[in-house]
Amino acid sequence: MTNNKDVVLFFSCDESYVPFFSVVLESIREHADKKRNYVIKCLHTDNIDKASERIIKREYSHGNIDVEFVDITESVKEFFEKFHVRDYYSKSTYYRLFIPDLYPEYDKVLYLDSDIVLLDDVAKLYDVDLGDNYVGAIPDESVQIIEEFKMYVENRIGVKSYKEYFNAGILLMNSARLREIKFRDIFLELIDKVTFNVAQDQDYLNAICKGHVRFIGAEWDKMPIDPNLVPEDEIKLIHYNLAFKPWHKDGVLYEKYFWYYSDKTTFAAIIRDIKAAYDVKLQEHADNQTANLIKTCREQALDVEENKRIQRVIDNLGK
Q1: pTM value > 0.70
Q2: Which of 8, 108, 168, 217 has its CA 20 to 30 A from that of 282?
Q3: Tens-digit pLDDT profile for the chain (319 aa)?
Q4: One-character DSSP codes across the chain
Q5: Residue extents of the structural domains in the chain
Q6: In angstroms, rounded to a whole number, what is the distance separating the alpha carbons of residues 60 and 233?
């Protein structure tokens, strides 16, 4: 069992994302409650440089914050080939799905993507009461404003309303309940029968957890999209997802917060170099990926027969 003062946080990343992981840690440290313990685990598969690991641990793993890098290569190797990816996704995005079984000592954990910054104490998010729900999450802001995404999540994933499709980058997990329903086995059964190639693991999570989600306020997963959704002074967490990367281009909404924390890290110069090296062709490629993704959403949303088949599979999971 977890100490009631512990805030248990999980991340997954590879070497290329370590600099951005340091930015998250910097923001967590600035807002941390001195009366709480922050247990932070970064899952990876033998792809984190030891020098990077030493820097992170030296900078952030002390006092009431403990950072551990965990190589889960052996734990996921029998499933690794099942994890299909596209574009900028890596297979590490699937690791969060295995946390409840990898860590049976925890009944509740908070998974966070590494392209975020905290503007408040993350313990406040961790403390949200999940009741009997499988997860706590925030409706995906990008889905709320793009018609093709709305069609896709309702027709293919089968959520009741696009307003209930959540972003899995900020995911409060009721690990005890997920173990109870044998979530890992259900996911592996589903991925064998259905390929979701738009939002990958996020689609699988929404398909399995629909109807069992504690929805949390948008201030805890504010994307740089619609500034009117949440007043800026009420934002608790900024999520620089999709193509909204301040380390790629200028003019990203809320970029000042990213650079505030980035410039305080040991990786500050490296992150600035990444920004300088990101050219117009790379941005055009990213924009084309987004356009193709929207096209794919529309095509799959209109594939009535396949969508019916997928819903039959989902309805029969675990039976």
Answers
A1: yes
A2: 168
A3: 455 689 999 999 889 999 999 999 999 999 999 999 999 999 998 779 999 999 999 999 999 999 999 998 887 776 656 555 444 445 556 788 999 999 999 999 999 999 999 999 999 999 999 999 999 999 999 999 999 999 999 999 999 999 999 999 999 999 999 999 999 999 999 998 998 988 888 999 999 999 999 999 999 999 999 999 999 999 999 999 988 999 999 999 999 999 999 999 999 999 999 999 988 888 788 888 888 889 999 999 999 999 999 999 999 987 6
A4: ---TTEEEEEEE--GGGHHHHHHHHHHHHHH--TTSEEEEEEEESS-S-HHHHHHHHHHHSBTTEEEEEEE-HHHHTTTGGG----TT--GGGGGGGGHHHH-TT-S-EEEE-SSEEESS-THHHHT---TT-SEEEEE-HHHHH-HHHHHHIIIII--S-GGGPEEEEEEEE-HHHHHHTTHHHHHHHHHHH----SSTHHHHHHHHHTT-EEE--GGGSB-SS-TTSS-GGG--EEE--TT--TTT-S--TTHHHHHHHHTTSTTHHHHHHHHHH--HHHHHHHHHHHHHHHHHHHHHHT-HHHHHHHHHHHHTTT-
A5: 6-315
A6: 27
